[in-house]
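Researcher: Next sequence.
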Amino acid sequence: MAITRPSTEQVLEIAADLGLTFSTEEAESYLALMQANFDAYDVVDAMPDNVAKVAYPRTPGYRPVGEENKYNAWYYKSEVKGAAKGKLTGKTVALKDNISLAGVPMMNGASTLEGFVPTVDATIVTRMLDAGATILGKAVCEQFCLSGGSHTSDPGPVHNPHRMGYSAGGSSSGSGALVAAGEVDMAIGGDQGGSIRIPASFCGIYGMKATHGLVPYTGVMPIESTIDHTGPMTASVADNALLLEVLAGADGLDPRQYAPKVSAYTEALGKGPKGLKIAVVTEGFTIANMDPAVADKVRAGAERFRAMGATVEEISIPEHPLTAAVWQPIGLEGLVQQMMHGNGMGFNWKGQYDVGLIDAHSAWRDRADDLSKTLKLSMLVGQWGLTHYRGRYYAKAQNLARAMKAAYDAVFAGYDLLLMPTLPIVASKLPEKDAPLEEVVMRAFEMIGATCQFDVTGHPSMSIPCGLSDGLPVGLMLTAKDYDESTIYQAAAAFEADGDWKNF
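Model: Next structure:
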């Protein structure tokens, strides 16, 4: 059908928005010339969209309640059985609810998107199903993924399986809780500032943010393309490596992917840490809210590696705290431009767009007051940078990101891995429903400065559990050079095999 043509009055309004001054006669002349362009839009409108067909049957599913959703970690349950044989045969998976599963509702934690049902599967969904996985549904995530806590989702707060009433971490909150509770073998999380590693640390599981672009993001709702990551969250290192083997590799549809180097990650699991050179990063222990008990557990973890035969030395990377500052303009201005003004997709990249998501998410403008406090704060900062400074700090931060990456790469010339706490704290108490704005924001962002560096640089980074403090899990973070996930798995598997992490 024909698209709507503007009236003369609407052309005048558009011109004014663009800073143009037209007379009515000029607007009428331009409107007449615009008709040929709109005829082409009619042709595009009449053509079917160019997206992959859905291969595996599924039903819309349902929202579980009560004991079936004890931790409020499930958004929707809908069993989708994959191929009869494959690497993931017998494995159950939960998807973070920013990942498209055709025919099953997706709200990305936000009431403004509630009712949206994707029509295509994300690339990683197809890959898992082709490998024999069974997808059990969608895991709750924080509203538009803008929180490191688990209290900002419109489906309600997600509880930590280690202690009810405490944060499961965010934004992949439900994914972390479901794996930790044993309700699924594996889950997919997303990471733009730490959102795989934060819930992995709080919940005591393994969370890998692989090299930027190694895992295709196609079919996952973006925040900001240069820091978008998606990847595996599991209860064991072996499952994590296995899942990454299935997920990794170019799909030809994601501009984040630039000749990704794929490996057989499970082959690294039995190699042991002997001979590895591990750098303990001083600045990773000097974050303002560092809990001494967490620091002690992680330093003890470093000593475990030394006892197992690795070379462990402490070094300084002065750029480490600076990289956290560089993340701010990229993350905040970028999310406003791409996720909000760009209706979730943005412009100027080749690949697969979700037209239905663009339509559905654009409605946020009519319900902006319903957005989470954390997203509102992020938007206010980002919009100020865009309007008052014309985006110059986003641009400068992207330039500086290359220098920050080079600083870490220089260290990787002499070391295989960086080691530091994943987070400065263990899980904190969930804010009450009527908590003041300051508490809501603090609990959402108090841990981001420990993880966001490697979203800026793109280096692979994994949280592994390394003991309990006051009965809550402590995370140890291992980071490697680009596409060297195998070395992380080599070390993590040895650490896991050294004993029950709860007793470390």
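Model: Residues 234 and 240 are 6 Å apart (CA to CA). The radius of gyration is 23 Å.
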